[in-house]
Amino acid sequence: MPLSRSRQARLSGFLAALMRHPSVRLAMVAIVAAAAWCDAFVLARKPPVHGFFDLRIYRGAVLWWLHGGSLYSFHIGHTDYGFTYPPFAALSMTR
Known about the structure:
Radius of gyration: 26 Å
Number of domains: 2
Oligomer: single chain
Shape: elongated
Distance between the termini: 56 Å
């Protein structure tokens, strides 16, 4: 159920007044700082589960192509996984 204009005005006035309160602002800054710390020092340090499998495929395909192989004939190891991006992607991965 949508709010009436008068309720919206009261709610926005309440939120504006709440945001002017120093302890609320401090709490918001603390939450953002904690989230940034968690991202930088906890989540970013975990090794990737997949071992950058896709990156190994695309890098291997580009190296294969640069040494004269057909871009789409490259397969990694004994799998059926190969390069699936359009040729422009290969150009963007070269130096």
